[in-house]
Amino acid sequence: MPDFDVAVIGAGAAGLSVAAICSGLGLSVALIERGRMGGECLNTGCVPSKALLAAARAAAEARQAGRFGLRLPPPEIDWAGVRAHVQGAIARIAPNDSAARYRGMGVEVIEAAGHFAAPDVIEAAGRRLSFRRAVIAAGSSPVIPDIPGLDGVPWLTNETLFELEEPPGHLVILGGGAVGIEMAQAHARLGCLVTLVEAAPRIAPGEEEELVHPLRAALLAEGIALHEGARLARVEQLEPEGPQAGAGVVLHLADGTRIAGTHLLLATGRAPRLAGLDLPAAHVAATPQGVRTRRDLRSVSNRRVWAVGDIADPEGLGPRRLTHAASQHAAVLVRSMLFRLPGTRLDYAALPRVTYTDPELAQIGLTEAEARAAGHRDLRILRWPLAENDRAIAEGRPEGMVKLVATSRGRLLGASLLAAGAGEMAGPYGLLIGRRLPLSALASLTLPYPTLAEAGKRAAGAFYAPKLLSPFTKRVITLLKHLP
């Protein structure tokens, strides 16, 4: 008889969700974690980065108070206080992810590295644990790019950035995706010089292009230096120029540009943590993107094994390295692994993603370019600028837009939002796309006034305006006006 019904490797967002659900349903569960409980999201990702962004936003609001007729002195940045806020946020959330809490649920938490020893056995802490089912939730780690000279200079990733005891004098960020952009704005607002280098033609590659342009303008207005379409030739150490100066880094771009900074942050993507799992011993197939699974997240080569979270590479979909994707994976796994429901398939059609800059950039479903590449024709593109939204005007934040991509029959394929708090506005669009509801469901929704969410309703209403104001409708109204 197996030692456990379910053995989970990894106590990040995905692994914790799976362990809690399985234990709650009465199964015996082993949860194996070699690092800190809560994984990347709690300790070095979502939570500390959003806490840092909150501190940075408060500093920016103090500087911008003059537009409301308020006269405030420039904010003084107490870096130790900022760090205390960040670490305090982690500490307040940590008990929810703690080993003690999960042991209280009946989960056997094994705080050690685990690896497969056979198709149905995991070794951890000197023990051989047999299982009925195993779930690989080992997560991902920052990609360290192959750059000449990088091995000779100090560098940071999100796993070490929040440990800095002093603010960077000049933070050079390699990578203009969500992490790079967020940390660029946060540190600029906290008084650091920031330069961001992106190899793609523009920052935020893959996001809705016409919404990236105003976000780019906002970053430039805050003093962030952007180098887009930049190819990095090599990196070298910058020697200190005085007895009190610390060594820095110099980036040499292929076009001859030289960028010197005190700190280098690598934000060039993430890779699955496959090393050390000994997947061949379990006959578990993998790709460079992660554990190969079917759409139900079951391994294509070992029916006893599933993969969830950053490490999963579902066929035809690929990985989605987002905390809320891990939660979605856990829900799919429950239907697939526990209830054995046939036809269970992962679907990312309504999966949102958010870049938590100010303004925030949110994407739900397909961008216009993605919709056209997928073969959708006769699209309706609907826009509503926040410059015509009463709440945005009242708060002095008229920059941004809601852009909807819909079929000619009124089915929403994608929504792009650029606004303060755009992530908080994303929910209804995911519901429309996921449940295949018509745009009329949003256009007819009664929303409180004034809110930014009205911009989406107005964009959806624009789909029906031509019909409502058509000559036919006007003739009908002309006839109906004679009725008593």
TrEMBL record:
Q: Which residues bind FAD?
A: K50, G114, D310
Provide the cofactor list for this protein. FAD
Which residue range or ranges hold the Pyridine nucleotide-disulphide oxidoreductase dimerisation domain? 352-459
Any GO MF annotation of the entry: oxidoreductase activity, acting on a sulfur group of donors, NAD(P) as acceptor
The record's section on Gene3D superfamilies has: 3.30.390.30, FAD/NAD(P)-binding domain (3.50.50.60)
Task: Give the stretches traversing the membrane.
Answer: 6-32
Which InterPro entries does its entry note? FAD/NAD-bd_sf, FAD/NAD-binding_dom, FAD/NAD-linked_Rdtase_dimer_sf, Pyr_nuc-diS_OxRdtase, Pyr_nucl-diS_OxRdtase_dimer, Pyr_OxRdtase_I_AS
Where the record annotates domain FAD/NAD(P)-binding, the positions are: 4-328
Binding positions for NAD(+)?
Answer: G175, G176, G177, A178, V179, G180, I181, E182, E198, G269
Q: List the disulfide bonds.
A: C41-C46
Q: Which domain of life is it from?
A: Bacteria
Keywords noted in UniProt: Disulfide bond, FAD, Flavoprotein, Membrane, NAD, NADP, Nucleotide-binding, Oxidoreductase, Redox-active center, Transmembrane, Transmembrane helix
| Cofactor binding description | Binds 1 FAD per subunit.
Q: Does the keyword Membrane apply?
A: yes
Q: Which family does it belong to?
A: Belongs to the class-I pyridine nucleotide-disulfide oxidoreductase family.
The name of this protein is Dihydrolipoamide dehydrogenase
Query: Which species does the entry assign this protein to?
Result: Roseicella frigidaeris
